């Protein structure tokens, strides 16, 4: 940026490169829409007011807002590479994302972080990185890598690295674990994000006292308010697996609004293409009673200020010309999207940019199961009473259910009548042959098996099924294709989506991935999985041992509240 020229253009002393004239322009600090021009110079905004330029576009009747910002997202969970994710996000008006490459780092360590930085370098999407704080998330699972503070510290020198991502190891924080404290201290003056489901009272205070500044794991307005009182910002999550936005809206008022941000956390392409992204969250908030001004501030300037980003989030002098053009004030899908002063999306012409694939060979070929046999699918159970994972509709939290289950010859078996199914997690990084075995209630599957190498957070191979033969078939198929998701039934593979990049992502276009996902989801529905579960994403979270209450990793059944491995048998 030529600062001298920017100053001259801002004063009207020479023409701007581009002037968007006669628009209704949102001013984030005041919450106003004002009728004026926007002058753009070298990709930055020179000023708002009355301007002339080399190119002038009449925006009469159009509403202009800053580009939207997602404060916390795992691109890998979209199953898209950064390039393809950008192609899905830009038409929705999201021009900045703060990512946590936690998923790929759990598979291939620092190589995964570097890949995400390299793959997002030349995109018309601002991609900032928060360094994954928990690889592995806990000692209760096996991941593909273990990252210490010394492994992460060199990345802090990268201009797009903003700090330390969600600190999921809350017990480690509260017990002052040396490993956890080293990472927190390493972050220094950088931002530190939180992940504190269920923390309250003095435990929440202790968590905040560690220097953790945010949380996206709020489920009730009361939890959100408690975090605000503890000096933490709240990320309003509306993802694919967890949808908390509507429940949290009562906590937003003009006094609290500056401390909220929108985030997706996890979003599949089908939802991005069909429902939208941050633009959908703005609409939900406004329909729920939040003022348009506050909703737009939550989508733009709030996350920019929180992450100390000085050049995004406002239409004001010195900010990047990341601008959305809407036909009306209902903030649906934008008519046009400008990124750094260049139009990158037009609702009539589509995307106006091309990406370039980054070589991902260094983080491919990541499924190493060892010798899997039918014996691995047997679930020994010494008692009729078992600890069973209970699903909760529309949530990634689960219940700990103690119930009588179906057994045959000392082994638990799937019980379709009571909707209790086998769930297995295979270690897939080091060929250890380790298998975690459990039972899940509520998934609804009546036939066949689902399997996936997308299994938060260590991304071992997870499968749920009604019979061992189909589960085995699905597991072997994922090994064959190098990772992904698949469905088997009646001894056949009904469908699969290969994810060769770390077993998590593909270079296929978003629309193609969305179509395949939709096809697989339809198959899962036909096999019995109810509408209130995103089949594969819900399954993926069943191995996440930092979200209450009961989960399964390759090491066994995890009581998250007690933070320990427990037997499958209940009261035995």
Report the major sheet. Answer: 9 strands, mixed
Categorize the overall geometry: globular
CATH class type of the largest domain: Alpha Beta
- Per DSSP, the total helix count is 17
Strand content: 25-35%
* Through-space gap between termini: 69 Å
| Percent in helix | 10-25%
Uncertain ranges:
none
**Mean pLDDT metric:** 96
CATH topology of the largest domain: TIM Barrel
Rg, nearest Å? 24 Å
Fourth-level CATH superfamily of the largest domain? Metal-dependent hydrolases
Assign the CATH architecture of the largest domain. Alpha-Beta Barrel
Number of domains: 2
The helix-and-strand class reads alpha/beta
Number of E-state strands? 31
Topology:
Blueprint: H1 3-10, E1 16-27, E2 32-41, E3 44-49, E4 53-58, E5 63-66, E6 68-73, H2 82-89, E7 94-99, H3 102-108, H4 110-119, E8 126-131, H5 149-152, E9 161-167, H6 170-174, H7 178-187, E10 191-194, H8 201-209, E11 214-215, H9 221-229, E12 233-237, H10 245-248, E13 260-263, H11 269-274, H12 278-287, H13 292-299, H14 301-306, E14 323-326, E15 336-339, E16 342-346, E17 350-351, E18 379-380, E19 385-391, E20 398-404, E21 407-408, E22 411-412, E23 420-426, E24 435-441, E25 449-452, E26 461-465, H15 468-481, E27 484-489, E28 492-498, H16 510-526, H17 535-541, E29 550-553, E30 556-559, E31 564-566
Parallel strand pairs: 1-4, 1-5, 6-7, 7-8, 8-9, 9-10, 11-12, 12-13, 19-24
Antiparallel strand pairs: 1-2, 2-3, 5-14, 14-15, 15-16, 16-17, 18-22, 19-20, 21-22, 23-24, 23-26, 25-26, 25-27, 27-28, 29-30, 30-31
């Amino acid at each position: 940026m030529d600062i001298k020229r920017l100053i001259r253009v801002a004063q009207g002393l020479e023409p701007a490169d581009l002037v968007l004239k006669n628009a209704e322009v949102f001013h984030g600090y005041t919450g106003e829409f004002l009728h004026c021009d926007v002058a753009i110079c070298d990709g930055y905004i020179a000023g708002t007011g009355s301007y002339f330029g080399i190119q002038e576009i009449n925006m009469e009747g159009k509403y202009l807002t800053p580009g939207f910002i997602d404060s916390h997202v795992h691109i890998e969970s979209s199953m898209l590479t950064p390039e393809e994710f950008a192609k899905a996000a830009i038409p929705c008006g999201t021009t900045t994302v703060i990512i946590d490459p936690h998923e790929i780092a759990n598979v291939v360590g620092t190589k995964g972080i570097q890949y995400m930085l390299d793959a997002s370098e030349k995109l018309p999407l601002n991609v900032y990185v928060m360094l994954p704080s928990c690889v592995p998330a806990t000692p209760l699972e096996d991941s593909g890598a273990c990252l210490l503070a010394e492994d992460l510290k060199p990345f802090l020198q990268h201009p797009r690295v903003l700090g330390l991502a969600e600190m999921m190891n809350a017990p480690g924080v509260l017990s002052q674990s040396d490993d956890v404290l080293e990472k927190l201290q390493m972050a220094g003056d950088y931002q530190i994000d939180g992940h504190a489901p269920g923390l309250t009272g003095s435990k929440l205070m202790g968590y905040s006292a560690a220097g953790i500044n945010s949380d996206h794991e709020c489920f009730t307005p009361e939890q959100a308010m408690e975090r605000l009182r503890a000096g933490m910002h709240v990320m309003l999550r509306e993802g694919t697996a967890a949808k908390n936005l509507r429940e949290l809206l009562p906590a937003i008022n003009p006094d609290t609004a500056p401390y909220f941000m929108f985030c997706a956390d996890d979003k599949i392409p089908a939802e991005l293409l069909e429902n939208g992204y941050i633009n959908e969250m703005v609409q939900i908030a406004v329909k729920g009673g939040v003022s348009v001004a506050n909703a737009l501030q939550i989508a733009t300037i709030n996350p920019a200020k929180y992450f100390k980003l000085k050049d995004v989030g406002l239409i004001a002098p010195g900010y990047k010309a990341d601008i959305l053009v809407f036909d009306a004030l209902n903030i649906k899908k934008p008519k046009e999207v400008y990124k750094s002063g260049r139009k990158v999306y037009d609702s009539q012409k589509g995307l106006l940019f091309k990406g370039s694939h980054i070589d991902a060979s260094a983080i491919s070929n990541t499924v190493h199961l060892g010798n899997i046999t039918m014996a691995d699918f047997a679930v020994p159970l010494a008692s009729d009473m078992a600890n069973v994972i209970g699903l909760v509709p529309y949530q990634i939290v689960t219940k700990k259910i103690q119930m009588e289950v179906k057994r045959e010859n000392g082994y638990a078996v799937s019980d379709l009548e009571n909707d209790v199914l086998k769930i297995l997690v295979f270690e897939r990084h080091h060929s250890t042959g380790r298998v975690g075995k459990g039972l899940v209630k509520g998934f609804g599957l009546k036939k066949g098996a689902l399997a996936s190498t997308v299994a938060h957070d260590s991304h071992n191979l997870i499968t749920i099924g009604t019979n061992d033969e189909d589960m085995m078939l699905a597991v072997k198929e994922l090994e064959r294709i190098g990772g992904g998701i698949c469905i088997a039934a009646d001894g056949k593979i009904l469908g699969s989506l290969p994810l060769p990049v770390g077993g998590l992502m593909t270079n296929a276009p978003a629309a193609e991935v969305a179509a395949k996902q939709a096809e697989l989801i339809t198959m899962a529905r036909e096999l019995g999985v109810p509408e209130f579960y995103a089949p594969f994403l819900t399954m993926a979270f069943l191995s996440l041992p930092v979200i209450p209450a009961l989960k399964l990793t390759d090491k066994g059944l995890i009581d998250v509240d007690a933070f320990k491995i427990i037997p499958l048998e209940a009261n035995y």
